[in-house]
Amino acid sequence: MSQAYGPAGRTYAGPPARPAIPPAVRKYGPRGALFAVVVSVALLLGALVMGFVLVASGEPRAIGIGIVLATLPVGPLVAAYFWLDRYEPEPTRLLVLAFAWGALVATGAALVLQAVEQMVNSSGEQFSAIVMAPLTEEAAKGFFVLLMLWLRRHVIDGLVDALVYAGLVGVGFAFTENILYFAGAYTGGPDFGPGGIASATSLFVLRGVLSPFAHPLFTSATALGVAVAVTSRSGLLRLAAPVGGYLAAVVMHAWWNGSAFLGGGQYFLLTYVFAMVPGFLAMVSLALWGRAREGRLLARAMHDLTRYGYLSPAELPALVSLRARRGARRQAAAHGGPEAGRLVREYQQQAVELATLHNRVMRGTAPAGSLERGTLMLQRLTALRLATGWLR
User: Where are the bilayer-spanning segments (predicted)?
Assistant: First the structure.
């Protein structure tokens, strides 16, 4: 059922000389403050752990080469996730936090947990790789998405949002892990061979070229569970789906790691060709489907908003189509300068956020406080419309 958010078109009696634009609706109350504290403390601790690990290696040249090689896959992967997130762009600061969580918190927590387990149980390399690494690493990576679901409930609206956050956490984790692996390969040793740039480059081909998507792929399984929880009305499914997604991520991770050990590594290439690549292609297909579906749902919600007078039908082409959005911003910038282009961008973004919230209201899965939040969004939308002179 559609839901009204207040008297349409009555928030402002008339345009002032310089309309005051309310700030973006981004206050989350006590939960938002708790999220900021938890993430800040976790990032600080993670940075200390990883700083200690890098300094303790005592090989600055190897670390430098590791950083250079580990950085190469990051750009294309991050760009792919930003492209996926274009219909309803997430706040950049949260996307940066997702990457930083993977690079510092998840890697640091996994290293500490695995080190403690080895000290307590004296387990071997194979047990650590097949059992402990999947359990600890997927828990550490997936915890950020669950934290978002718990403390930033308004942010994750469905499949695409969950995949973007989980994917960037996975990219960040792979970045730091690759630094350690590439540095180890350059230094050489029992696990990496004679060392040197040739060893580091060979490992880069394996991890940075052939399988840079491994960690984002594993964490995407947890994201699927979170997406189901967000869109479901069943309380049981909201609890069970993230757990099931995490277990699926652990199984995928363990299978991938185990293929390098079991049977003397003879199943590694088969696992890559017949499991990892198809899994990656399946996840890409799911992401593209989710992106297209997100566009359709936003368009439906915007059309419904026109029924209440919150949006004008004449506005819809420049709000629904990505190409039309860009064209409207360019036209505004050409006639009114960069400030006009910025205001139109803000207007489009606010309309998309209101439509996203309205879509969840229509589905009956909106979080608490949605009507108050929608009213604030509508007020800002009205002020932005006046400031931009939209449709005048």
Answer: 33-56, 62-82, 94-115, 127-151, 163-184, 204-229, 236-256, 268-290
